[in-house]
Amino acid sequence: MKKIGALLVLLIVLSVAAMPLHSTDTVSAQGSDGPADKWCSGVKIVFFPGGPAGGVFAVNVYNGAVQAAADLGADVDYVWSDWDPQKMVQQFSEAMATSPDGIAIMGHPGEDAFEPLVDEAVANGIIVTSQNTDLPRLESRYAGQGFGYVGQELYATGYNLGKETVRRAGLVEGDRAMVWGLLSQPTRGLRTQGVIDAFEEEGLEVDYLEIDSATNADPPAGIPTFVAYVSSNPDVKAVVTDHGGLTATLQSYLEGAGKGPDDIYGAGFDLSPATVQAIESGFTDLVIDQQQWLQGYLPILQICLTEKFAFSGLHIDTGGGFASADNIDVLAPLVEAVIR
Q: Is residue 290 a contact partner of residue 157, using CB atoms and an 8 Å limit?
């Protein structure tokens, strides 16, 4: 029995030693020699924060990625996309041409647009992972090569916000609600659809507005659209802005329409300094915090783990918590630090 046990241990050791790794460098992070510093040094990554440089939401994602690069030692280039799906696809192709070890993408263009490019990247030995908007078909295909996901569960997050808005605002069947979202984007639009479905299940009259490209890139550009909508629908009881930048501008939208903090129940996504101020002043009532800083930090960690240790893709939901007047005093200092 002792001989059999020893043989099994030897076989296990040999099988682990034979596992393929992306990197031929040292694989030590913590082992017999203790923890290693900057264990991802030399790994080249291209990272997509999503929006414009310094923009709401994208800056938190960027800060998380910068912290991960500093902690792990990875060499990271950042590509800003203005939340433009077509630009993201073109930039992915350009990033792939630089032959990085990994690319962390925003999934907004959808799987049909990304699939041939991701297939090509993986075939060329590039690790690809996604954040903010999931790509389940690609994740399933390439999870073993490090394709993971960090972000909200899109439909469920929208649905939960819709249901919670109905409950907290005291909405009843027949009340009018407006949803300002991105149904036109194949996967990203699932979050908008979740809000609409939750409202319609409660019998609300739902008006849907698509966020146009100008407002998507520069949320204050949407003030005339919002003012026109409210003028035509003075009975609207609740508004959901399915976009971090629009949520951060919600107070300006309401003030532009001549509304006070108690006139329309405002709900949306993602914390920012402007959103904190709007919650404190009563203009914004409910926000889902998808912890976007983690959507920067964890994809960098994912690529490093796969490159150095052949870990498979991790699927991490960051979108479970609500922010409101009840807890904003705890979250506000972290928002000011551009972490939450």
A: yes
